[in-house]
Write a structure and sequence with these properties.
2 copies of one chain form a homodimer. With 107 residues, chain A is α+β, with helices and mostly antiparallel strands. Chain A is built from 5 helices and 3 strands, in the order H-H-E-H-E-E-H-H. The first copy, chain A, has a 3-stranded antiparallel beta sheet with strand order 1-3-2. In chain A, strand 2 and strand 3 form a beta hairpin. Chain B binds a DNA duplex (30 and 30 nucleotides) through helix 3.
Chain lengths: 107, 107
Amino acid sequence: MDADRTPDHPDLREVTLQRVLEALVDPVRRSIVTQLATAAGDISCGGFDISVSKSTATHHFRVLREAGLIRQHYAGTSRLNTLRRAEFDRAFPGLLDAVVTADRASA
Amino acid sequence: MDADRTPDHPDLREVTLQRVLEALVDPVRRSIVTQLATAAGDISCGGFDISVSKSTATHHFRVLREAGLIRQHYAGTSRLNTLRRAEFDRAFPGLLDAVVTADRASA
DNA sequence: GCTGAAGTACGACCGCCGTCAAACTTCGAT
DNA sequence: ATCGAAGTTTGACGGCGGTCGTACTTCAGC
C-alpha cells in the first residue's frame, strides 16, 4: 500500500533548542528557511536556490524536518516544503523572526 | 606598561550571524550566556557553573568574545565577563532574548 | 623574592557533520 | 511498458571543532 510516503514530523514539544540551533547554524539550511519565510508558500525540494548536490539537499531537509522547522508532503514525485511557522513560534518565541531577519540583512 | 592585557573585542557591525550562531550552538557556551543574562553582572571565568577544563573554558570565552556576545576585562588575576547586551541587541534584534528564554525553559 | 591562584597558549586526539557519487525507488507522461 | 524527472539511501571521505594535559604567564599576598 505504498504505506505513507509522508515522513515523520516531530511534535514541537519534543524538539530541543539544541536541535533547532544545530539546524539553523548551517548556511545552506538557514538559506532554505529564509527562502521559505520569504515566499510564504510551499516550495518543492528542487525549487530552492541552493548550491549542493541532491543527496546533500535531502540531508538538509531531513535535519530541518527533525528540528520541527519545516513540514514535508508529497505531490506527485515532488516533495513540497512548508514552514511550521505558527507551531514553531509557539515553542520558540521570537527565534525564527530574529534569525530570518538577521539572515536577510546579511544578504 | 603591562601593555593591554585586554583582548580585542570586535565591532558588532563586523560580526556575522554565522559567527553568532556558531557561538550559541554549543551547550557550554549557551550556558555561559544564560548565566550572564540571569546574573546581570560581571562574572569571573572561574565563577561559572561549567563542567570543562580550564583550557577548554578559555577556548569558549574566546569564541563568545569574537562573536561579540561578551566583553572581558581584567581585575587582578581574574578576568571579568559581561554581556554586551545593548550593542548586541542593536545588531541582532530579538536573537539573544529568544535564545536565553528558550534555554531557560529547557533547564 | 616565593608561592599559589587564575587564565592563556600550544599540540594532540577524536568524533561528528557536510559533502558527494552511485544505485535505487516512485511517480507522471508518452 | 518505458523513460525520465524528483528524491532517497547508503557508504565513504575530509575537515573542523570540542576536549584535554602540560607548560607558561601574570598578578596578589605573605
